[in-house]
Amino acid sequence: MSNPxxxxxxxxxxxxxxxxxxxxxxxxxxxLPGIIDRLPYLTQLGVDAVWLSPFYLSPMADAGYDxxxxxxxxxxxxxxxxxxxLISRAHDLGLRIIIDLVPNHTSDEHEWxxxxxxxxxxxxxxxxxxxRDGQGEHGELPPNNWSSVFGNSAWTRLHHADGxxxxxxxxxxDVKQPDLNWNDERVRAAFDDVLRHWLDAGVDGFRVDxxxxxxxxxxxxDQKEVTELLGTNMGPMWDQDGxxxxxxxxxxxxxxxxxxxALVAEAWVPDLDRLALYVRPDEMQQAFNFAFLNAPWDAAxxxxxxxDSIAANDxxxxxxxxxxxxxxxxxxxxxxxxADTGNRNSAGPEDPQPDHELGLRRARAATLMxxxxxxxxxxxxxxxxxxxxxxxxxxxxxxxxIWERSDHEQVGxxxxxxxxxxxxxxxxxxxSPTGRTWLPQPESYRxxxxxxxxxVPGSTWSLYRDALALRKSYALxxxxxxxxxxxxxxxxxxxxxxxxxxxxxxxxxxxxPDGEILISxxxxxxxxxxxxxxWLRRS
Length: 539
Ligand code: GLC
Fold this sequence. Notes:
alpha/beta; five-stranded antiparallel sheet; 15% strand; binds alpha-D-glucopyranose
Protein backbone atom coordinates (compact mmCIF):
# COMPACT_ATOMS: atom_id res chain seq x y z
CA MET A 1 0.00 0.00 0.00
CA SER A 2 1.14 3.54 -0.62
CA ASN A 3 1.75 5.95 2.24
CA PRO A 4 -1.35 5.60 4.40
CA UNK A 5 -1.61 9.30 4.99
CA UNK A 6 -1.83 10.15 1.33
CA UNK A 7 -3.04 7.03 -0.48
CA UNK A 8 -5.91 8.72 -2.31
CA UNK A 9 -3.76 11.54 -3.66
CA UNK A 10 -2.13 9.36 -6.29
CA UNK A 11 -4.17 6.14 -6.27
CA UNK A 12 -5.34 4.28 -9.36
CA UNK A 13 -8.88 3.20 -8.55
CA UNK A 14 -10.64 0.46 -10.51
CA UNK A 15 -14.42 0.74 -10.76
CA UNK A 16 -16.30 -2.54 -10.47
CA UNK A 17 -19.89 -2.60 -11.65
CA UNK A 18 -20.90 -5.64 -9.60
CA UNK A 19 -23.71 -6.96 -11.78
CA UNK A 20 -21.37 -7.17 -14.76
CA UNK A 21 -18.03 -8.23 -13.32
CA UNK A 22 -18.19 -11.95 -12.46
CA UNK A 23 -21.17 -14.21 -11.75
CA UNK A 24 -20.47 -17.06 -9.33
CA UNK A 25 -24.05 -18.23 -8.79
CA UNK A 26 -24.95 -18.73 -12.46
CA UNK A 27 -28.04 -16.49 -12.49
CA UNK A 28 -26.57 -14.19 -15.13
CA UNK A 29 -25.84 -11.33 -12.71
CA UNK A 30 -22.42 -10.67 -11.28
CA UNK A 31 -22.12 -10.97 -7.50
CA LEU A 32 -19.81 -10.30 -4.57
CA PRO A 33 -18.42 -13.86 -4.35
CA GLY A 34 -17.55 -13.49 -8.05
CA ILE A 35 -15.62 -10.32 -7.25
CA ILE A 36 -13.84 -11.97 -4.31
CA ASP A 37 -12.64 -14.76 -6.63
CA ARG A 38 -11.25 -12.23 -9.07
CA LEU A 39 -9.47 -9.88 -6.64
CA PRO A 40 -6.05 -11.35 -7.56
CA TYR A 41 -6.74 -10.25 -11.14
CA LEU A 42 -6.77 -6.66 -9.90
CA THR A 43 -3.51 -6.94 -8.02
CA GLN A 44 -1.97 -8.54 -11.12
CA LEU A 45 -3.12 -5.51 -13.12
CA GLY A 46 -1.58 -3.26 -10.48
CA VAL A 47 -4.37 -1.00 -9.24
CA ASP A 48 -4.38 0.44 -5.72
CA ALA A 49 -8.08 0.51 -4.89
CA VAL A 50 -11.50 -0.66 -5.99
CA TRP A 51 -14.70 1.37 -6.14
CA LEU A 52 -17.81 -0.81 -6.06
CA SER A 53 -21.05 0.49 -7.55
CA PRO A 54 -24.04 -0.21 -5.26
CA PHE A 55 -24.68 -3.74 -4.01
CA TYR A 56 -27.38 -2.84 -1.44
CA LEU A 57 -30.93 -4.11 -1.12
CA SER A 58 -32.83 -2.63 -4.03
CA PRO A 59 -35.81 -3.24 -6.31
CA MET A 60 -33.30 -2.46 -9.10
CA ALA A 61 -35.28 0.22 -10.87
CA ASP A 62 -31.95 1.95 -11.57
CA ALA A 63 -29.56 -0.99 -11.30
CA GLY A 64 -29.14 -0.56 -7.54
CA TYR A 65 -28.94 3.26 -7.41
CA ASP A 66 -32.40 2.98 -5.85
CA UNK A 67 -31.54 1.76 -2.36
CA UNK A 68 -34.11 0.14 -0.07
CA UNK A 69 -31.67 -0.58 2.79
CA UNK A 70 -28.20 0.94 2.97
CA UNK A 71 -26.79 -1.74 5.25
CA UNK A 72 -27.99 -4.93 3.59
CA UNK A 73 -26.58 -6.66 0.50
CA UNK A 74 -29.20 -7.42 -2.14
CA UNK A 75 -29.69 -11.19 -2.63
CA UNK A 76 -28.83 -10.67 -6.30
CA UNK A 77 -25.27 -9.88 -5.19
CA UNK A 78 -24.95 -12.41 -2.36
CA UNK A 79 -25.23 -12.06 1.39
CA UNK A 80 -24.37 -9.17 3.67
CA UNK A 81 -21.49 -11.26 5.04
CA UNK A 82 -20.00 -11.35 1.52
CA UNK A 83 -19.47 -7.57 1.61
CA UNK A 84 -17.54 -7.90 4.85
CA UNK A 85 -15.48 -10.75 3.45
CA LEU A 86 -14.77 -8.78 0.30
CA ILE A 87 -13.44 -5.85 2.32
CA SER A 88 -11.15 -8.02 4.38
CA ARG A 89 -9.90 -10.12 1.45
CA ALA A 90 -9.16 -6.95 -0.52
CA HIS A 91 -7.22 -5.53 2.42
CA ASP A 92 -5.24 -8.75 2.71
CA LEU A 93 -4.19 -8.21 -0.90
CA GLY A 94 -3.27 -4.57 -0.29
CA LEU A 95 -6.30 -3.16 -2.11
CA ARG A 96 -8.39 -0.33 -0.68
CA ILE A 97 -12.17 -0.44 -0.97
CA ILE A 98 -14.44 2.48 -1.80
CA ILE A 99 -18.17 1.87 -1.76
CA ASP A 100 -21.00 3.85 -3.31
CA LEU A 101 -23.17 6.07 -1.13
CA VAL A 102 -26.49 7.15 -2.63
CA PRO A 103 -27.76 10.06 -0.49
CA ASN A 104 -29.80 12.16 -2.93
CA HIS A 105 -32.68 9.70 -3.05
CA THR A 106 -33.81 6.35 -1.73
CA SER A 107 -35.92 3.70 -3.38
CA ASP A 108 -39.65 4.24 -3.10
CA GLU A 109 -39.53 0.85 -1.33
CA HIS A 110 -37.32 2.20 1.47
CA GLU A 111 -39.13 2.08 4.82
CA TRP A 112 -38.80 5.88 5.22
CA UNK A 113 -40.69 6.51 2.00
CA UNK A 114 -43.30 3.86 2.74
CA UNK A 115 -43.92 5.46 6.12
CA UNK A 116 -44.13 8.90 4.51
CA UNK A 117 -46.72 7.76 1.99
CA UNK A 118 -48.77 6.04 4.68
CA UNK A 119 -48.64 8.96 7.12
CA UNK A 120 -50.21 11.35 4.65
CA UNK A 121 -49.96 15.07 3.87
CA UNK A 122 -48.72 17.33 6.64
CA UNK A 123 -47.10 14.48 8.59
CA UNK A 124 -43.58 14.69 9.94
CA UNK A 125 -42.72 11.49 8.01
CA UNK A 126 -43.32 13.38 4.75
CA UNK A 127 -40.78 15.99 5.78
CA UNK A 128 -37.98 13.51 5.06
CA UNK A 129 -38.78 13.77 1.33
CA UNK A 130 -39.96 16.56 -0.96
CA UNK A 131 -43.74 16.26 -1.03
CA ARG A 132 -45.74 19.22 -2.33
CA ASP A 133 -49.32 20.00 -3.27
CA GLY A 134 -49.87 20.38 -7.00
CA GLN A 135 -50.66 23.59 -8.82
CA GLY A 136 -53.97 24.24 -10.59
CA GLU A 137 -57.48 24.33 -9.25
CA HIS A 138 -57.42 20.70 -8.12
CA GLY A 139 -53.68 20.29 -7.68
CA GLU A 140 -53.58 18.50 -11.01
CA LEU A 141 -50.40 20.25 -12.21
CA PRO A 142 -46.92 19.45 -10.87
CA PRO A 143 -45.57 21.83 -8.20
CA ASN A 144 -42.94 23.23 -10.61
CA ASN A 145 -41.51 22.62 -14.08
CA TRP A 146 -38.49 20.54 -13.10
CA SER A 147 -37.68 17.64 -15.38
CA SER A 148 -36.11 14.34 -14.42
CA VAL A 149 -32.61 13.67 -15.77
CA PHE A 150 -34.03 10.41 -17.08
CA GLY A 151 -36.73 12.29 -19.05
CA ASN A 152 -40.22 13.72 -18.41
CA SER A 153 -41.40 15.44 -15.23
CA ALA A 154 -39.47 15.18 -11.97
CA TRP A 155 -42.79 14.99 -10.06
CA THR A 156 -45.17 12.09 -9.60
CA ARG A 157 -48.58 12.34 -7.99
CA LEU A 158 -49.70 9.90 -5.34
CA HIS A 159 -53.19 8.45 -5.17
CA HIS A 160 -55.19 7.16 -2.23
CA ALA A 161 -56.32 3.54 -2.22
CA ASP A 162 -59.69 4.63 -3.61
CA GLY A 163 -57.96 6.34 -6.53
CA UNK A 164 -58.40 9.90 -5.29
CA UNK A 165 -55.31 11.99 -6.14
CA UNK A 166 -53.23 13.60 -3.40
CA UNK A 167 -49.74 15.17 -3.13
CA UNK A 168 -46.81 15.03 -5.54
CA UNK A 169 -43.24 13.99 -4.70
CA UNK A 170 -39.97 15.02 -6.32
CA UNK A 171 -37.66 12.56 -8.07
CA UNK A 172 -34.78 14.03 -10.05
CA UNK A 173 -34.21 10.53 -11.46
CA ASP A 174 -36.66 7.65 -11.83
CA VAL A 175 -40.18 7.67 -10.37
CA LYS A 176 -38.90 4.96 -8.01
CA GLN A 177 -36.13 7.25 -6.68
CA PRO A 178 -37.80 9.88 -4.44
CA ASP A 179 -35.45 12.73 -3.44
CA LEU A 180 -34.67 13.13 0.24
CA ASN A 181 -35.10 16.43 2.04
CA TRP A 182 -31.61 17.26 3.28
CA ASN A 183 -32.95 20.11 5.40
CA ASP A 184 -34.39 17.49 7.72
CA GLU A 185 -32.08 16.66 10.62
CA ARG A 186 -33.32 13.05 10.70
CA VAL A 187 -32.01 12.55 7.16
CA ARG A 188 -28.64 13.98 8.14
CA ALA A 189 -28.40 11.88 11.27
CA ALA A 190 -29.45 8.72 9.42
CA PHE A 191 -26.65 9.15 6.90
CA ASP A 192 -24.08 9.78 9.63
CA ASP A 193 -25.07 6.34 10.87
CA VAL A 194 -24.80 4.78 7.41
CA LEU A 195 -21.30 6.23 7.03
CA ARG A 196 -20.29 4.94 10.46
CA HIS A 197 -21.75 1.52 9.73
CA TRP A 198 -19.51 0.99 6.71
CA LEU A 199 -16.51 2.77 8.23
CA ASP A 200 -16.77 0.33 11.12
CA ALA A 201 -16.82 -2.46 8.52
CA GLY A 202 -13.47 -1.17 7.29
CA VAL A 203 -14.19 0.60 4.00
CA ASP A 204 -11.57 3.13 2.94
CA GLY A 205 -14.03 5.58 1.47
CA PHE A 206 -17.23 6.44 -0.32
CA ARG A 207 -18.03 7.56 -3.82
CA VAL A 208 -20.89 10.02 -3.27
CA ASP A 209 -23.61 9.67 -5.88
CA UNK A 210 -25.12 12.89 -7.29
CA UNK A 211 -23.14 14.95 -4.80
CA UNK A 212 -24.25 18.18 -6.49
CA UNK A 213 -27.96 17.44 -6.02
CA UNK A 214 -28.65 17.14 -2.28
CA UNK A 215 -29.54 20.78 -1.60
CA UNK A 216 -32.33 22.33 -3.63
CA UNK A 217 -32.90 26.06 -4.03
CA UNK A 218 -35.32 27.19 -1.30
CA UNK A 219 -38.87 27.50 -2.55
CA UNK A 220 -38.13 25.10 -5.43
CA UNK A 221 -38.48 27.78 -8.14
CA ASP A 222 -39.04 26.84 -11.79
CA GLN A 223 -36.00 25.96 -13.84
CA LYS A 224 -35.17 27.94 -16.94
CA GLU A 225 -33.68 25.15 -19.04
CA VAL A 226 -34.49 21.52 -19.45
CA THR A 227 -32.30 19.17 -17.43
CA GLU A 228 -30.00 17.30 -19.76
CA LEU A 229 -29.01 13.77 -18.88
CA LEU A 230 -26.23 14.07 -16.30
CA GLY A 231 -25.73 17.30 -18.12
CA THR A 232 -24.11 20.63 -17.86
CA ASN A 233 -27.25 22.75 -17.47
CA MET A 234 -27.23 24.07 -13.97
CA GLY A 235 -30.54 24.89 -12.36
CA PRO A 236 -32.18 25.32 -8.97
CA MET A 237 -31.61 21.65 -8.16
CA TRP A 238 -27.86 21.45 -8.84
CA ASP A 239 -24.74 22.71 -7.11
CA GLN A 240 -26.48 24.81 -4.49
CA ASP A 241 -24.21 26.20 -1.79
CA GLY A 242 -26.17 24.25 0.81
CA UNK A 243 -24.45 20.98 -0.17
CA UNK A 244 -21.18 22.06 1.42
CA UNK A 245 -22.26 22.01 5.03
CA UNK A 246 -23.31 18.38 4.50
CA UNK A 247 -19.83 17.45 3.28
CA UNK A 248 -18.17 19.32 6.12
CA UNK A 249 -20.28 17.26 8.51
CA UNK A 250 -19.26 14.03 6.78
CA UNK A 251 -15.63 15.11 6.81
CA UNK A 252 -15.97 15.25 10.57
CA UNK A 253 -17.41 11.73 10.68
CA UNK A 254 -14.53 10.36 8.61
CA UNK A 255 -11.90 11.96 10.81
CA UNK A 256 -13.27 10.00 13.78
CA UNK A 257 -11.66 7.01 12.05
CA UNK A 258 -8.04 6.11 11.48
CA UNK A 259 -6.59 5.07 8.16
CA UNK A 260 -7.18 8.20 6.11
CA UNK A 261 -10.63 7.45 4.69
CA ALA A 262 -11.83 9.38 1.64
CA LEU A 263 -14.94 10.83 0.05
CA VAL A 264 -15.14 11.27 -3.71
CA ALA A 265 -17.79 13.48 -5.25
CA GLU A 266 -19.77 12.51 -8.30
CA ALA A 267 -20.68 16.09 -9.12
CA TRP A 268 -21.52 17.06 -12.70
CA VAL A 269 -20.47 20.66 -12.15
CA PRO A 270 -19.00 22.14 -15.34
CA ASP A 271 -17.18 25.07 -13.70
CA LEU A 272 -13.91 23.65 -12.38
CA ASP A 273 -13.62 26.36 -9.72
CA ARG A 274 -17.09 25.49 -8.41
CA LEU A 275 -16.15 21.80 -8.49
CA ALA A 276 -13.03 22.55 -6.45
CA LEU A 277 -15.25 23.80 -3.62
CA TYR A 278 -16.25 20.15 -3.00
CA VAL A 279 -12.65 19.25 -2.24
CA ARG A 280 -11.73 22.04 0.13
CA PRO A 281 -9.63 20.81 3.06
CA ASP A 282 -12.64 20.32 5.33
CA GLU A 283 -14.93 18.64 2.77
CA MET A 284 -14.33 15.75 0.40
CA GLN A 285 -10.96 14.35 -0.65
CA GLN A 286 -11.62 13.96 -4.39
CA ALA A 287 -14.11 14.85 -7.12
CA PHE A 288 -14.42 13.13 -10.49
CA ASN A 289 -13.01 15.24 -13.28
CA PHE A 290 -15.79 15.01 -15.84
CA ALA A 291 -14.31 17.88 -17.85
CA PHE A 292 -11.53 15.44 -18.81
CA LEU A 293 -14.02 12.67 -19.61
CA ASN A 294 -16.07 15.10 -21.73
CA ALA A 295 -13.12 16.40 -23.73
CA PRO A 296 -13.22 15.68 -27.46
CA TRP A 297 -10.12 14.30 -29.20
CA ASP A 298 -8.53 17.68 -29.53
CA ALA A 299 -5.11 18.77 -28.30
CA ALA A 300 -6.07 22.32 -27.35
CA UNK A 301 -9.02 21.08 -25.28
CA UNK A 302 -6.88 18.53 -23.46
CA UNK A 303 -4.27 21.16 -22.64
CA UNK A 304 -6.91 23.55 -21.33
CA UNK A 305 -8.71 20.93 -19.25
CA UNK A 306 -5.50 19.59 -17.76
CA UNK A 307 -4.15 23.06 -16.95
CA ASP A 308 -7.42 24.35 -15.50
CA SER A 309 -8.10 21.18 -13.50
CA ILE A 310 -4.71 21.25 -11.84
CA ALA A 311 -4.98 24.97 -11.13
CA ALA A 312 -8.47 24.73 -9.63
CA ASN A 313 -7.47 21.82 -7.38
CA ASP A 314 -4.14 23.36 -6.40
CA UNK A 315 -6.02 26.42 -5.22
CA UNK A 316 -7.71 24.30 -2.54
CA UNK A 317 -4.84 21.86 -1.96
CA UNK A 318 -6.66 18.85 -3.41
CA UNK A 319 -5.33 16.22 -5.83
CA UNK A 320 -6.72 16.19 -9.34
CA UNK A 321 -8.53 13.12 -10.61
CA UNK A 322 -8.70 11.77 -14.14
CA UNK A 323 -11.34 9.53 -15.68
CA UNK A 324 -12.29 8.51 -19.21
CA UNK A 325 -15.07 5.93 -18.75
CA UNK A 326 -17.65 4.80 -16.21
CA UNK A 327 -21.01 3.02 -16.03
CA UNK A 328 -22.95 6.13 -17.16
CA UNK A 329 -21.18 7.08 -20.38
CA UNK A 330 -20.11 5.58 -23.69
CA UNK A 331 -16.88 3.60 -23.30
CA UNK A 332 -14.00 5.76 -24.50
CA UNK A 333 -12.80 3.08 -26.93
CA UNK A 334 -16.01 3.81 -28.85
CA UNK A 335 -16.52 7.50 -28.09
CA UNK A 336 -13.11 8.37 -29.54
CA UNK A 337 -13.96 6.46 -32.73
CA UNK A 338 -17.18 8.33 -33.50
CA ALA A 339 -17.50 11.50 -35.55
CA ASP A 340 -18.32 13.57 -32.45
CA THR A 341 -15.61 12.49 -30.02
CA GLY A 342 -17.01 14.74 -27.29
CA ASN A 343 -20.43 13.04 -27.22
CA ARG A 344 -20.55 10.72 -24.21
CA ASN A 345 -24.12 9.54 -24.77
CA SER A 346 -24.40 5.99 -26.01
CA ALA A 347 -25.57 4.91 -29.44
CA GLY A 348 -27.98 2.24 -30.66
CA PRO A 349 -28.20 0.07 -33.78
CA GLU A 350 -29.92 2.80 -35.80
CA ASP A 351 -27.26 5.42 -35.01
CA PRO A 352 -23.99 5.99 -36.88
CA GLN A 353 -21.54 3.35 -35.65
CA PRO A 354 -18.13 4.19 -34.18
CA ASP A 355 -14.93 3.20 -35.99
CA HIS A 356 -13.68 0.56 -33.54
CA GLU A 357 -10.13 0.42 -34.78
CA LEU A 358 -9.67 4.18 -34.61
CA GLY A 359 -11.50 4.34 -31.28
CA LEU A 360 -9.26 1.71 -29.68
CA ARG A 361 -6.11 3.34 -31.01
CA ARG A 362 -7.11 6.69 -29.56
CA ALA A 363 -8.38 5.12 -26.34
CA ARG A 364 -4.98 3.52 -25.74
CA ALA A 365 -3.34 6.89 -26.42
CA ALA A 366 -5.76 8.78 -24.17
CA THR A 367 -5.28 6.28 -21.36
CA LEU A 368 -1.53 6.54 -21.58
CA MET A 369 -1.84 10.34 -21.36
CA UNK A 370 -4.16 10.02 -18.36
CA UNK A 371 -2.01 7.57 -16.42
CA UNK A 372 0.97 9.93 -16.56
CA UNK A 373 -0.91 12.89 -15.11
CA UNK A 374 -0.36 13.88 -11.48
CA UNK A 375 -3.17 12.94 -9.13
CA UNK A 376 -5.51 9.97 -8.95
CA UNK A 377 -6.88 8.02 -11.93
CA UNK A 378 -10.06 5.98 -12.30
CA UNK A 379 -10.34 2.92 -14.56
CA UNK A 380 -13.71 1.41 -15.43
CA UNK A 381 -13.87 -2.40 -15.57
CA UNK A 382 -13.14 -3.70 -19.04
CA UNK A 383 -11.34 -0.65 -20.35
CA UNK A 384 -8.09 -2.52 -19.66
CA UNK A 385 -9.31 -4.93 -22.36
CA UNK A 386 -10.13 -2.09 -24.78
CA UNK A 387 -13.79 -3.10 -24.69
CA UNK A 388 -16.01 -1.12 -27.03
CA UNK A 389 -19.49 0.05 -26.16
CA UNK A 390 -22.16 -2.45 -27.25
CA UNK A 391 -23.74 -0.14 -29.81
CA UNK A 392 -25.78 -2.77 -31.65
CA UNK A 393 -27.65 -4.20 -28.66
CA UNK A 394 -31.21 -5.02 -29.74
CA UNK A 395 -33.67 -2.74 -27.93
CA UNK A 396 -35.59 -5.64 -26.40
CA UNK A 397 -32.70 -6.21 -23.96
CA UNK A 398 -32.54 -2.65 -22.64
CA UNK A 399 -32.88 -2.28 -18.86
CA UNK A 400 -31.80 1.30 -18.18
CA UNK A 401 -34.84 3.37 -17.14
CA ILE A 402 -33.63 6.15 -19.45
CA TRP A 403 -34.83 4.14 -22.47
CA GLU A 404 -38.47 4.14 -21.34
CA ARG A 405 -38.53 7.52 -19.57
CA SER A 406 -37.06 9.32 -22.59
CA ASP A 407 -39.78 7.77 -24.77
CA HIS A 408 -37.05 5.80 -26.59
CA GLU A 409 -35.20 8.96 -27.58
CA GLN A 410 -32.09 7.94 -25.66
CA VAL A 411 -30.87 4.35 -25.71
CA GLY A 412 -29.51 4.77 -22.18
CA UNK A 413 -26.45 3.27 -20.55
CA UNK A 414 -26.75 -0.49 -21.03
CA UNK A 415 -24.09 -0.49 -23.76
CA UNK A 416 -21.27 0.19 -21.28
CA UNK A 417 -22.63 -2.24 -18.67
CA UNK A 418 -22.29 -5.49 -20.58
CA UNK A 419 -20.83 -8.45 -18.61
CA UNK A 420 -17.03 -8.84 -18.70
CA UNK A 421 -15.45 -11.37 -21.06
CA UNK A 422 -12.99 -13.53 -19.13
CA UNK A 423 -12.46 -16.61 -21.30
CA UNK A 424 -12.95 -16.69 -25.07
CA UNK A 425 -14.25 -20.23 -25.39
CA UNK A 426 -16.34 -20.56 -22.21
CA UNK A 427 -20.09 -20.04 -21.82
CA UNK A 428 -20.91 -16.32 -21.47
CA UNK A 429 -17.21 -15.74 -22.22
CA UNK A 430 -16.41 -16.96 -18.71
CA UNK A 431 -18.68 -14.43 -16.99
CA SER A 432 -21.15 -17.01 -15.69
CA PRO A 433 -20.85 -20.79 -15.24
CA THR A 434 -24.29 -21.35 -16.78
CA GLY A 435 -23.79 -19.08 -19.78
CA ARG A 436 -26.50 -16.71 -18.62
CA THR A 437 -25.93 -12.94 -18.87
CA TRP A 438 -28.32 -10.16 -17.86
CA LEU A 439 -27.31 -8.24 -20.99
CA PRO A 440 -26.06 -9.87 -24.21
CA GLN A 441 -22.33 -9.71 -24.96
CA PRO A 442 -21.36 -8.65 -28.49
CA GLU A 443 -19.35 -11.11 -30.56
CA SER A 444 -16.45 -8.65 -30.64
CA TYR A 445 -15.84 -9.31 -26.92
CA ARG A 446 -14.62 -12.88 -27.59
CA UNK A 447 -11.21 -11.93 -28.92
CA UNK A 448 -10.88 -9.26 -26.26
CA UNK A 449 -11.44 -11.68 -23.36
CA UNK A 450 -8.99 -11.59 -20.47
CA UNK A 451 -7.45 -14.97 -21.38
CA UNK A 452 -6.65 -13.65 -24.87
CA UNK A 453 -4.78 -10.63 -23.54
CA UNK A 454 -3.28 -11.32 -20.15
CA UNK A 455 0.52 -11.20 -20.39
CA VAL A 456 0.28 -11.04 -24.20
CA PRO A 457 2.81 -8.48 -25.47
CA GLY A 458 1.11 -5.59 -27.24
CA SER A 459 -2.35 -6.32 -25.81
CA THR A 460 -4.35 -3.53 -24.23
CA TRP A 461 -4.27 -5.43 -20.93
CA SER A 462 -0.46 -5.49 -21.02
CA LEU A 463 -0.39 -1.80 -21.90
CA TYR A 464 -2.38 -1.01 -18.75
CA ARG A 465 -0.31 -3.31 -16.56
CA ASP A 466 2.98 -1.89 -17.84
CA ALA A 467 1.77 1.70 -17.61
CA LEU A 468 0.59 1.19 -14.04
CA ALA A 469 3.93 -0.34 -13.04
CA LEU A 470 5.89 2.52 -14.66
CA ARG A 471 3.55 5.10 -13.14
CA LYS A 472 4.39 3.66 -9.76
CA SER A 473 8.13 3.33 -10.25
CA TYR A 474 8.45 6.89 -11.60
CA ALA A 475 5.97 8.20 -8.97
CA LEU A 476 4.00 9.96 -11.68
CA UNK A 477 0.92 10.26 -9.49
CA UNK A 478 2.92 12.60 -7.27
CA UNK A 479 4.51 14.41 -10.18
CA UNK A 480 4.18 17.98 -11.24
CA UNK A 481 3.74 18.95 -14.80
CA UNK A 482 5.65 21.21 -17.14
CA UNK A 483 4.39 21.72 -20.65
CA UNK A 484 6.39 20.76 -23.72
CA UNK A 485 5.28 23.10 -26.46
CA UNK A 486 7.89 22.71 -29.19
CA UNK A 487 6.28 19.84 -31.09
CA UNK A 488 3.40 21.82 -32.51
CA UNK A 489 -0.14 22.61 -31.49
CA UNK A 490 -1.45 19.11 -32.11
CA UNK A 491 0.85 17.37 -29.65
CA UNK A 492 -0.11 17.38 -25.99
CA UNK A 493 3.31 17.30 -24.38
CA UNK A 494 4.47 17.55 -20.81
CA UNK A 495 7.25 16.43 -18.54
CA UNK A 496 6.68 15.02 -15.10
CA UNK A 497 9.70 13.99 -13.06
CA UNK A 498 12.03 12.02 -15.31
CA UNK A 499 9.39 11.30 -17.91
CA UNK A 500 8.30 13.19 -21.02
CA UNK A 501 4.82 12.35 -22.25
CA UNK A 502 3.79 13.13 -25.82
CA UNK A 503 0.33 12.51 -27.27
CA UNK A 504 -0.06 13.07 -30.98
CA UNK A 505 -3.66 14.18 -31.43
CA UNK A 506 -3.17 15.27 -35.05
CA UNK A 507 -3.44 13.72 -38.48
CA UNK A 508 0.31 13.70 -39.19
CA UNK A 509 3.25 11.89 -37.57
CA UNK A 510 5.82 13.99 -35.73
CA UNK A 511 9.54 13.37 -35.22
CA UNK A 512 10.34 12.02 -31.77
CA PRO A 513 12.81 13.92 -29.62
CA ASP A 514 15.69 12.04 -27.99
CA GLY A 515 15.01 9.81 -25.04
CA GLU A 516 14.58 6.19 -24.11
CA ILE A 517 11.10 4.91 -24.97
CA LEU A 518 9.51 3.59 -21.79
CA ILE A 519 6.13 2.69 -23.25
CA SER A 520 3.96 3.65 -26.19
CA UNK A 521 0.32 3.12 -27.07
CA UNK A 522 1.27 1.95 -30.55
CA UNK A 523 4.66 0.86 -31.96
CA UNK A 524 6.94 3.87 -32.53
CA UNK A 525 10.41 4.36 -33.97
CA UNK A 526 11.83 7.68 -35.11
CA UNK A 527 8.37 9.15 -35.40
CA UNK A 528 5.34 9.38 -33.15
CA UNK A 529 2.42 8.26 -35.34
CA UNK A 530 -0.98 9.92 -35.27
CA UNK A 531 -3.37 9.09 -32.41
CA UNK A 532 -0.55 7.76 -30.24
CA UNK A 533 1.12 8.48 -26.91
CA UNK A 534 4.68 7.76 -25.84
CA TRP A 535 6.49 8.08 -22.52
CA LEU A 536 10.17 8.93 -22.89
CA ARG A 537 12.79 8.84 -20.18
CA ARG A 538 14.48 12.19 -20.27
CA SER A 539 18.07 11.88 -21.39
C1 GLC B 1 -25.43 8.67 -10.66
C2 GLC B 1 -25.09 7.25 -11.02
C3 GLC B 1 -26.07 6.78 -12.03
C4 GLC B 1 -27.44 6.82 -11.41
C5 GLC B 1 -27.78 8.21 -10.89
C6 GLC B 1 -28.96 8.19 -9.97
O1 GLC B 1 -25.28 9.55 -11.70
O2 GLC B 1 -23.77 7.17 -11.47
O3 GLC B 1 -25.78 5.49 -12.49
O4 GLC B 1 -28.41 6.45 -12.36
O5 GLC B 1 -26.72 8.74 -10.14
O6 GLC B 1 -28.62 7.57 -8.75
